[in-house]
Amino acid sequence: MYSHGSESLINQAREIQEPELQKFYSRLVKLLQVKELSHETLDSLQRLQLILFANKFTKILPAELQQKLLSLLSSPAEQLQVLGSAVLRETLPPSGQELNFSEENLSQLNTHAAALLLSQARSRADLSNLCAQLIRSLESRPSEGPTQSLMFTLPVLNTVFTLSPECLTEDHVTLLSKKLVDWLRYASIVQGGGASSGGFFTGPRSRQPLPIAELDGSVSGDFFTVLCVGQGFTEDQWMNVYSFSMLRHWLLTHHSVSNTAVDADDRSEVEGSVVSVVSVTSSSSRLLPPKERLREKAFQYCQRLIEQCDRRAQKKADSELQKACLVEAVCILDCVCAEDASMVYRAFPCMKALFGRLSSDLSFARVLLPIAQFYLNHGEMDTVDCERVWKLVFGQFPAELFNDAFLAYELLRFLRLNLENIQSRAPEFVQFFPNFLKFLAWDSPAVVEDFVDLLPSLVTTGTAVELLHTLLDLPCLTATLVLQLRSTCLPIADPNSRGLLSLEAFRNPAFRGLFLFLLRAQAGSGDTIDRLGTLHELLAEAADWPRVVRCAQTVPVLLHVYFNTVVKMDDRKLLAHLVLVMLERSSLLLRIPSYSKEIHRVFSCHLRRLCKLHPSLVVDQSHELLEFAGATANVYNKEEVYTHVVWVLGEYLSVSSDSRCSVKLITSCFEALEAVLFEITSSTPPPGTICPAPRVITTLMSALAKLASRSHDLIPRASLFLSKLRTVSRNGSVAWCADEEDLVAIVTRGEELWSLLKAPGVAQSVLTPPAYVTTPRWHRDTSVAMPLQLRALTSLTHSQ
C-alpha cells in the first residue's frame, strides 16, 4: 500500500518515545510563538500530524500547544489553517475537553474550523447542539460580528443535515426558511467592493455603487441571482449564492421533517384550487407560512435563472455556468412540484419552452436529462405527451453521445433510479436496448455494474432472443463504434486511414448493412444477421484492440444475469429457442483470445440448468441436439458445450423425464454418440488439434451406458464397444490419448460401466436413479429414525 520510504516514516512516527515527544511539543510551542512562521514550523506541524495519525491511541496535547494550534485556525495563511485543523482532529475530543460551540468560535468560522467542529461531534446529541448554535448564529445582525463567518455557516449546516436530518426541529425549519427567502429574493442589486462609475472627478464622494449586470453585459433589471456579475459582491449576494447551492438539499431535507407541529391554517391557503395558486403575487406570498413562502421564492428564483440562460454569455466559462445553473434550477423546480402538486401547472409551460429550445442542441444533453426527470415525475398530472422526450433521451443521446462518460453515467443512473416509473410511463424504453448497450460497448468497466442492475428489465418475451444475440456481438459493436469515430475523424484521403482493412470495410457500401445493423437504435429489425461469419472476418484485426478486449471480458458476466432472468420467465417456447441459439452461436463468435472459451463455459452452465428445470426441452430439441452431438468436429472445437450436450442427452432422454421419449429416439441418439466415440477412439486427432479431453470420452461412454440401460436391445452393442476399448488400451499407448493417467481413468470408467451393464436392472437403477434417491429428504422424514439420531447427536455435541 505504501512505498518503502513512506513505511519508514510511519514506523519512525510509531516508535517515538514519550520523553522525546514532550521535547518536540515544547520546541513546537516556541516556534508557534514567533509571529512570522518559518519553514521549520510547517515541517514540525506536518511531522506532528504524522505522529498523531500513525499512533494507535489518541494522544493528549499539552494545553499551551493546543491553544496555539486553535489560534492557527484564524491565521491568514490557509496552509496553517489546514495543518492546525488536521492536527486537532487527531486529538479532539479525546483530550478530555467538552465540545465548545460558543458564539466566539462560530464567529471565527471558516472551512477548516468547520471541519474541526464536525469532527468533534461524536453523537447525534452533539450534532443537534451544533445545529442549534449554527442556526441561532444566523439570527445575528451583520453589525454584531464578522459577517464573513455566515458564508461558512450554511455549508456546515448542509453537512449536519446530511449526517443527521433528525437534528432539525420545526422551529429550525421555520427560521432557516425565512433566512433563505431573504437571501434568495432580497439580496442587494448593486455591486459590492466599492465599484467606481469612472470619470475625471472620481473620488471618495463621487463613487456611486454600480448596478449588477447580466452575463451578456446588460444592466440587470430584476433581483440578484447566481448568474449576475459585477466587479465585487456584497455579503448578502454571497449568501444568495450559498443559499442557491444548498436549496435543493434543504427542500428535500425539510420535506422529510414531520409536519405534525404545523398548524392547519398554515396550509389552508396553499391547498386550495389551482387558480388561487397561479394568482399568487409577490405581495400575497408574504402572507404564506415560511416553508410555503420558500417554495414560492425558489420557484421565482428558478424561473429567473431560466430566463437569464436565454442571454448569450460573453465568456465560455459563463456558458458552462449557465448549463450548470439550468440543471440545478430544473431539479429544484422538480422538488418544489413534488412538495406542492399545484405548482406543476405553473412550471410546465416553462419546461415545455425550455425543452423546445434545447432539444435541437446535443451540447445541452446533461440539461435535458433533468427535464426528462421532470416530465417523468409530473407528466401525468398535466397530461403531457412525453414521446418526443423519450425519443431524444433513449434514442438520440446514446446513438450520438455514447462516448460521453458523464452523460453515460447520468443517463444510466436516471434509468436505474426511475426504473419502475419508466416501465409504467414509457414501456417502449425496452425497445431501445441496442442503443443503451452502446454505453457498455464503449466503456465496459465503468458501466458494467449499472447494466447488471438494468439488464433484467430489458429481458422480455419479445426482446430475449435479439438481446442474447446482441450481447454475444457486443465486442463487434465496440469495434464498430471505434470505426465510426475513426471514419469521421480521418478523411478517406488521409494516409493514416488506409492501414485498417476493417475501416475500409466500414466505408464499403457492400458491407454497410452489416455495420448499420450493429448500430441500430431500436430492436425489432431482426434477431441477428445472416452474414455473421463475414462480419467476424471483417473485424478480425479488432480482436486485440484494448477497448474490444475489455468489452469481451464483461459479456460472460452479463450472460449469467441474462439467463438468470430468462429462467424466471418460465416460457418453455422461449427457452427452447434459446437452446437453439446457444448451439448455433457457439461457433459464431468474434475470434478474441479466450472469449469463445468463456462463452462456451457460460452456455454449458445454463444449458444444463435449463434442461434440469425443464427436461422436456431435450425431447423438444432432440433433432438439433443430436445433430450437434453427432458432429465429430465439435469434440475438438467446442469441448465444453459438446460435453454438456452429450450429458443432457444421456441424462434426460428417458421416459421418466418425458413420456414422449420413444425407443426409436433413444436408439438414434445411441447410434449418433456411438459413431462419434468410435471415430475419436480409432483415429488420430485432425491436424492442428489436440487429443480430446478425457472428460469428453468418459461422458460419451456414460451417455451410451445410460441409453442402453433404458433400451435393453442396445446393451450388447454398448458392452461390446466397452470391452473393445479395454482390449485396445492394453496394447500400450493410443493416438487419441496422450497422457497415461488419463488413459487409465478412461479404461477404469469403461470397466465400471461394462460391469453395470451385465445386470440391466441394476444398471438402470444406478445410471438413472429415481428422483427420491437423487434428492433424499430422510433428515426431514418423521417416519424414519434418522431425524431422531441427528437431533441426539446435535444435543450431545452442543452440550459441551
Please explain how this structure is put together.
By secondary structure, the chain is mostly helical. α10 (170-185) packs antiparallel against α11 (235-256) and α37 packs parallel to α39 (740-757). Mean pLDDT is 83; it is low at 142-146, 195-203 and 258-283.
Percentage of residues in strands:
under 5%
Distinct helical segment count: 42
- Rg, rounded, reads 37 Å
Give the % helix. 55-70%
Largest sheet: none
What labels would you give this structure?
800 residues; Adaptor-related protein complex 5, zeta 1 subunit; mainly alpha; TPR_AP5Z1_N; AP5Z1; elongated; TPR_AP5Z1_C; 42 helices
What is the compact description of this entry?
The protein has 42 helices and no strands. By secondary structure, it is an all-alpha fold.
List the helices and strands and how they pair.
Elements: H1 4-15, H2 18-33, H3 39-54, H4 63-72, H5 78-89, H6 103-107, H7 111-120, H8 124-137, H9 148-163, H10 170-185, H11 235-256, H12 264-267, H13 274-278, H14 282-285, H15 290-308, H16 316-339, H17 344-358, H18 365-378, H19 387-400, H20 405-417, H21 419-425, H22 433-442, H23 444-458, H24 464-472, H25 474-489, H26 501-507, H27 512-518, H28 532-538, H29 546-569, H30 572-585, H31 595-613, H32 616-620, H33 622-629, H34 633-637, H35 639-652, H36 663-680, H37 694-710, H38 715-730, H39 740-757, H40 760-767, H41 771-774, H42 786-798
Domain AP-5 complex subunit zeta-1 ARM repeats: 321-438
InterPro entries: AP5Z1 (IPR028222), AP5Z1_ARM (IPR055450), TPR_AP5Z1_C (IPR056856), TPR_AP5Z1_N (IPR056857)
Domain AP-5 complex subunit zeta-1 N-terminal TPR: 1-280
